[in-house]
Design goal:
single chain, alpha+beta, 3-stranded antiparallel beta sheet, PqqD family protein, PQQD
């Protein structure tokens, strides 16, 4: 199963309860909502699978597993496109 990790192209910080990310190669800033911040916080701890990220979100929010996996998969694809996260095998 694939795992996901943060790239070395980014730095992040918490600002007023929001996670703010800078891609220093692009010079672009990104913000994550509360659910996205849960995903990001878990990725900061080390490589994670889609299932482990979904379990973290389900432990904090009332969401069915299929919707959770679908939404997190979309978020990961966006983060990969922006070179903030990478997939590792």
């Amino acid at each position: 199963m694939a795992k996901y990790q943060l790239t070395s192209d980014q730095i992040s910080s918490k600002v007023a309860g929001e996670t703010v990310i800078l891609n220093h190669n692009k010079g672009a800033y990104y913000g994550l909502d509360e659910v996205g911040a849960v995903v990001w916080d878990n990725l900061e701890r080390g490589p994670q699978t889609l299932d482990s990220l979904c379990n973290a979100v389900i432990s904090e929010y009332e969401v069915d597993p299929e919707t959770c996996k679908s939404d997190i998969d979309l978020l990961l694809k966006d983060l990969i496109f922006e070179k903030l996260v990478e997939e590792i095998k």
